[in-house]
Design a protein that fits this description.
Layout lengths: L2 E2 L4 E2 L4 E2 L4 E2 L4 E2 L4 E2 L4 E2 L4 E2 L4 E2 L4 E2 L4 E2 L4 E2 L4 E2 L7 E5 L2 E6 L10
Parallel strand pairs: 1-4, 2-5, 3-6, 4-7, 5-8, 6-9, 7-10, 8-11, 9-12, 10-13, 12-14
Antiparallel strand pairs: 14-15
């Protein structure tokens, strides 16, 4: 059973999987995904199309930028920049989500 505390504002098409937990007073933009057993703190600003991996933990009063990915089992203690992939304990930036975009060959 997922748990969403009071005063959480969620955008459109937000998916919260089984066992995921949300602290209070979060602002979640459209198309965010919270995998099973992910746990996020309170007073977060969560961007568009963010992905929270299985069993990740995010501390309170942080910003998670648009189109970012938090890896499975990660512990996030700092702001996550837009378009970034973070993982580990504590979570560190690994790459950009735009790295996979390859321009067409001419």
């Amino acid at each position: 059973n997922e748990r969403v505390s009071g005063a959480v504002r969620m955008g459109r098409c937000v998916r919260v999987m089984n066992g995921a937990m949300q602290g209070h007073d979060n602002v979640v933009a459209d198309h965010a995904f919270f995998a099973a057993n992910s746990c996020v703190g309170s007073h977060l600003e969560i961007g568009v199309a963010t992905y929270f991996g299985l069993n990740c933990t995010v501390g309170g009063k942080l910003k998670v930028g648009d189109y970012s990915v938090i890896g499975m089992g990660s512990v996030v203690t700092r702001h996550v920049e837009p378009f970034s992939v973070v993982a580990g304990n504590p979570a560190k930036p690994l790459r950009s989500t735009t790295d996979a975009i390859v321009p067409p060959e001419e």
